[in-house]
Write a structure and sequence with these properties.
Length: 350
Amino acid sequence: MTFLTPKAQALTPYTAGIQPKEPGWVKLNTNENPYPPSSKAAEAIRGANLDALRLYPDSDSNILCEVIAGRYGVALENVFCGNGSDEVLALAYQAFFAERDNILTPDISYAFYPVWAQMYGVTAKIIPLKEDFSIDPGEYVNSNGVILANPNAPTSRALTLAQVETIVRNNPHAVVLIDEAYIDFAGVASAVSLVPKYENLLVVQTFSKSYSLAGLRVGFAVGSRALVDGLQKIKHSFNSYPLGMLEQKAATAAMLDTDYWNETRQKVKATRDKTIGALRELGYAVQDSHTNFILMKAKDEGHAKGLYEHLLAHKILARYWQKPRISEFLRVSVGTDEEMEAFLQCVKQF
């Protein structure tokens, strides 16, 4: 006998990367930032009035939203904060895509998208990536909604701002959601600049990657007043207090510390590019990356899983999927220079 509903029984959950409990691992499997958060974020937590934890936090994260609005040059009414970008995305699925068909999304992208589609009755129209894993904007037209990660994961490819605008313009009566979890490593402009021009554009970002706050779970969306109101309506039907007081304070301090944010993301990009060059010298085909991870192809057919297991045996975690089109690839998060050197030495041994 099962107590699950038929819908719950049918779900295929998202599979997260391994989170080792013991020390000594080189963790390159979940695209976390290898550098600590801003010291100002830590100070904000230490300096918080802990007596206030008996009270509910600001439901709308107004101070944090004001800082985000100032950073991106939009109005406060255009910003929405949630418990990690995953919650923001899930709320967007419910608000704009649930029970609808002809929702366009790539065949290779963030593995949570099909889970939410299944959970919220979204009939997705899957658009295959091109042979080089790029997205053709001309294929994203006349839909009831578009969901794209830009840069895309796990491919690490990015659309230009002009290409994103083409997609938004070609779907005037549908919400176009651009998931920019990795935009701060991309070298291409954020689509947030297009929000004042297009009422149907929603841009989602996270504090987990470039701000080193994955453990706090803070995400946000920037969109028109109509879209933000839609997210608020779903939020208040599900979880009215998504961000705790400490999360709001730390994220606010982290976003204001632009010098540290820029320093660490530039370090990640430099290590990424150096690692890509080293892998190519070893004979591996590696995608140009616009993210804080690398997608590398095994030298020989069937060797990707063996390389993954070889790394695992040496306490180095990467990500491998036994899925069509990417079963010959590993996704490797960018760590510190020392961590990437350990990774490269292990690859050489293999």
